[in-house]
Amino acid sequence: MTTIRQRRVEKGTEAAEDQPSEEKNVKPDGKILSDHTGGKLWNILSVTVGGIVAISLGLLTSVYVATLHENDLWFSNIKEVEREISFRTECGLYYSYYKQMIQAASIQQGLHGLVYDNKTESVRTINILERMNVYQEVFLSILYRILPIQQYLEPVYFYIYTLFGLQAVYVIALYVTSWLLSGTWLSGLLAACWYVTNRIDTTRVEFTIPLRENWALPFFAVQIAAITYLLRTHLQPVRERWTLMAVFIATFLFSLTWQFNQFMMLIQALALFILDCFDMLPTAKVTWLYIIQISGLLLVCVLQFFNSMILGSLLISFNASVLIARTIQKNLKKGSLLNRLGKLILHVLLVLCLTLLINKFIKKILNLESDEHIFKFLKAKFGFGATRDFDANLYLCEEAFGLLPLNTFSRLSDTLLFYVYVFVLFLMTVAAVIVAFRNLSGSNQVQFMEKMEECTITLKPDAAYNLMHTVLFGCLALSTMRMKYLWTSHMCVFASFGLCSTEVWKLILKCIHLYTSQRMHVIKYSIPIITLLYISYKFWPGIMDELSELREFYDPDTVELMNWIKSNTPNTAVFAGSMQLLAGVKLCTGRTLTNHPHYEDKNLRERTKQIYQIYAKRSPEDVYRILRSFGTDYVILEDSICYERRHSRGCRLRDLLDVANGHIMDGLGENEPDLKPSLYPRFCEEIKKNLPSYTIHFTRVFQNKTFHVYKLAKHK
């Protein structure tokens, strides 16, 4: 088990371009007076200063997380095997392909090894580029090989510095999005500060560096910034085309770097669909965004050798259905309120039915079952029947896939982020409901809206999109903790935008009959500045203490295991064990695996369930037969799994296996009526007794406080 121990140290313009401004002095014919040349110069100066602040904050954030990583592990001082062990679970698996490409005799040989890989899954040859999103590792390894930096920078540092550098891109994208929405870079500054001070809930890059989301989320943030700019009014055609190109590139890179891209973009497509139905976004731009999503995903599909999971994604089916339904229902946005509501309901039902039909048809044609575990998990999670499915329960029992803990909100409230977010969300939601009602009512039913004109603001398309985005991703985060990082980072953007927004403060002041232009501007700038001063005063000392705290990586048992494997087993040896540990075995030793943590394949899921019978109540003959069917030479048993106490009864791995096998679980507690006692004791416990029925098949060759390695006999 890995621990982090204390290190022993010996003493010795705020307004962006194209943003319409209500404060401009305009002639009756619409031309800006010539004395506004000074205003243009001020805008240029403001944009320059804001840009410098954005880049500076991005770079500082990158240095900050890199320093935390170094201080936490003493990464520069530990051995290479310890560095590699620090890339836990699937992180180690992904990094192993970067290492494999670096160590290959040539780039061509490295690529051939990935396309025809027979070491990731024993007795099978798989295409890594088709199965996994590892093009970033391929690109980075090629870049490292061709750049003249080998003498100055180790491969591992080139890798982690790239990821930390992407954090700079992430923060700059959040900053720019907030700036675009509010018209002031003060909003971007506040968003970046909130992102850093809420680091525990906004990112985990410093301790899960190679995780796919750490590659993907910066590009997702860039895409959101580009969409925000695209949805602005009065955008010139040339700039619109360049912005569409930026959206496409960001969408493509996001899709290429994360296997869950299709689900995130499906939520994004739902946001666009809802807003388009209520006539809150320009239909032409929404259509372009649907097409960009489909084309970006299809391009990734081609690069991943026509990965069937992408072709069978709900996103492609949904977007295609929306475009087809629009063609069928041409006069969707005309008529009275009741007439439009009726058309809208029919439109939603038509899109839903078409999506299900198209998706089912594609999956039937492709015989696609790679993502069925996700739908089983969702079905069980939201209470549509209990399940004994091993894969679904494996997800359900993990804290990361549970509901968002309540203590998250207390942490977010400490920085005032959550309070401001809820305040802005409430106001913007009220405004959105009013605007949606007005749009659906049409010109004949606007008297009610005219009565409320004093307190009503017009919700701009870019603000409407970000509102729906934060609502939908908030629902996702509340239901699944692992996805909170998609929400909390955007929460920083949305809250800072609201606090610096002219429209928000104008709405509030008009509703309480205190509005003047001067008062609104004083509040717009003073409250964000006061918030920034409060955050700095409260959290700066803590950040400094955090940066001065020195620890070091400490996991002697795993280091001993990896060193033993490298020294005492042949390079062709095949190892079985837990998914998490085997990823480290591949990275540190290069040995062949029976299974691994990349779970998006039906055959691998079934294989993993079979391998995990080493922790179930099965006979030694059964376990031996299963392991040998996958070519296993050595099996690694972990006490932390065999005698697990991290999860409660019913969620321990051995319990999941017992229920899936129809056996009664260990310990006090209820069991389902149809479960029966097993005829055999638990394999991982009984094998340690060295009984003849076990030693005939398994010989212990390594043991420490955490791991037990057994060599399988090769019977004729």
From TrEMBL:
<feature type="transmembrane region" description="Helical">
    <location>
        <begin position="179"/>
        <end position="197"/>
    </location>
</feature>
<feature type="transmembrane region" description="Helical">
    <location>
        <begin position="341"/>
        <end position="362"/>
    </location>
</feature>
<keyword id="KW-0812">Transmembrane</keyword>
<feature type="transmembrane region" description="Helical">
    <location>
        <begin position="288"/>
        <end position="306"/>
    </location>
</feature>
<feature type="transmembrane region" description="Helical">
    <location>
        <begin position="156"/>
        <end position="174"/>
    </location>
</feature>
<protein>
    <submittedName>
        <fullName>D19L3 mannosyltransferase</fullName>
    </submittedName>
</protein>
<keyword id="KW-0472">Membrane</keyword>
<feature type="transmembrane region" description="Helical">
    <location>
        <begin position="41"/>
        <end position="66"/>
    </location>
</feature>
<dbReference type="GO" id="GO:0000030">
    <property type="term" value="F:mannosyltransferase activity"/>
</dbReference>
<dbReference type="GO" id="GO:0005637">
    <property type="term" value="C:nuclear inner membrane"/>
</dbReference>
<comment type="similarity">
    <text>Belongs to the dpy-19 family.</text>
</comment>
<dbReference type="InterPro" id="IPR047465">
    <property type="entry name" value="Dpy19L3"/>
</dbReference>
<feature type="transmembrane region" description="Helical">
    <location>
        <begin position="521"/>
        <end position="540"/>
    </location>
</feature>
<dbReference type="InterPro" id="IPR018732">
    <property type="entry name" value="Dpy-19/Dpy-19-like"/>
</dbReference>
<keyword id="KW-0808">Transferase</keyword>
<feature type="transmembrane region" description="Helical">
    <location>
        <begin position="416"/>
        <end position="441"/>
    </location>
</feature>
<feature type="region of interest" description="Disordered">
    <location>
        <begin position="1"/>
        <end position="30"/>
    </location>
</feature>
<dbReference type="Pfam" id="PF10034">
    <property type="entry name" value="Dpy19"/>
</dbReference>
<feature type="transmembrane region" description="Helical">
    <location>
        <begin position="217"/>
        <end position="235"/>
    </location>
</feature>
<feature type="transmembrane region" description="Helical">
    <location>
        <begin position="242"/>
        <end position="258"/>
    </location>
</feature>
<keyword id="KW-0328">Glycosyltransferase</keyword>
<feature type="transmembrane region" description="Helical">
    <location>
        <begin position="487"/>
        <end position="509"/>
    </location>
</feature>
<feature type="transmembrane region" description="Helical">
    <location>
        <begin position="312"/>
        <end position="329"/>
    </location>
</feature>
<feature type="compositionally biased region" description="Basic and acidic residues">
    <location>
        <begin position="21"/>
        <end position="30"/>
    </location>
</feature>
<keyword id="KW-1133">Transmembrane helix</keyword>
